[in-house]
Design brief:
With about 200 residues, the chain is of the alpha+beta class. The chain contains 3 helices and 11 strands; from the N terminus they run E-E-E-E-E-E-E-H-E-E-E-E-H-H. The protein folds into 2 domains: about 55 residues, no CATH class; about 130 residues, Nucleoside Triphosphate Pyrophosphohydrolase. Strands 4, 5, 6, 7, 8, 9, 10 and 11 form an 8-stranded mixed β-sheet that branches. Strand 2 and strand 3 form a beta hairpin. Helix 2 runs antiparallel to helix 3. The longest helix is centred in the middle third of the chain and has 13 residues.
Length: about 200
């Protein structure tokens, strides 16, 4: 039995793409109460559903070309950090979509690439200190590259990098990147026999 007991969950803010909930927990050992704020993409979160039986809400795609030993990385302006980050294509799973369909759509929209073989990893929580969002990481071989179809508020460019270039980018302390992109790239490179560390 966990030390912390969830006593209540209350919606405190509703936005178009997420809600903020205030959770009240009780420490079973000393009776102290702790408030914790949670960001959720799930519109109907309840105490019973918190952390359970929730749909995968996002995908992160690592586009690869193993034959030519290349990885497609993006450079994207990210509003929460007010700067450009080296990243991988990612986005939300639309209602009625499965993870594979969402991954192929996001890849095409953000880079113009058409996915070939898609390998989906099990969903994992994105940022457990802030949100209950789960995302599936996807590795997609790329068949061809065309024109992207980005949304108005997106500013994304993409470029192919050799394995060695991708390793240099992802291990350079001066390059700003997201943790998920960094880890996926390094994992792929290690699987491909590149000495990562």
């Amino acid at each position: 039995m966990p030390k912390m007991k969830l006593n209540s969950l209350e919606e405190v803010l509703s936005m178009p793409f997420f809600k903020v909930y205030s959770a009240m927990y009780e420490n079973r050992e000393n009776g102290r109460i702790a408030q914790y704020d949670i960001v959720s993409r799930n519109k109907d979160l309840t105490m019973q559903r918190l952390g359970r039986d929730l749909p995968t809400s996002a995908v992160a795609i690592l586009p690869v070309d193993p034959e030519n030993r290349r990885i497609l990385l993006t450079r994207e302006f990210r509003m929460p950090v007010n700067d450009y980050l080296v990243a991988i294509p990612a986005g939300l799973v639309d209602p009625g979509e499965d993870v594979r369909t969402a991954a192929a759509r996001e890849l095409r929209e953000e880079t113009g690439c058409i996915a070939g073989r898609i390998t989906v990893l099990p969903p994992a929580f994105s940022c457990i200190g802030l949100t209950d969002e789960s995302a599936s990481c996807v590795i997609a071989t790329v068949k061809e590259q065309g024109k992207s179809a980005q949304e108005d508020n997106e500013e994304i460019t993409s470029h192919w990098y050799t394995y060695e270039q991708a390793l240099a980018i992802m291990t350079d302390p001066k390059v700003r990147t997201g943790a998920r992109a960094q880890l996926l790239v390094l994992l792929w490179l290690a699987m491909e026999g590149v000495k990562v560390f």
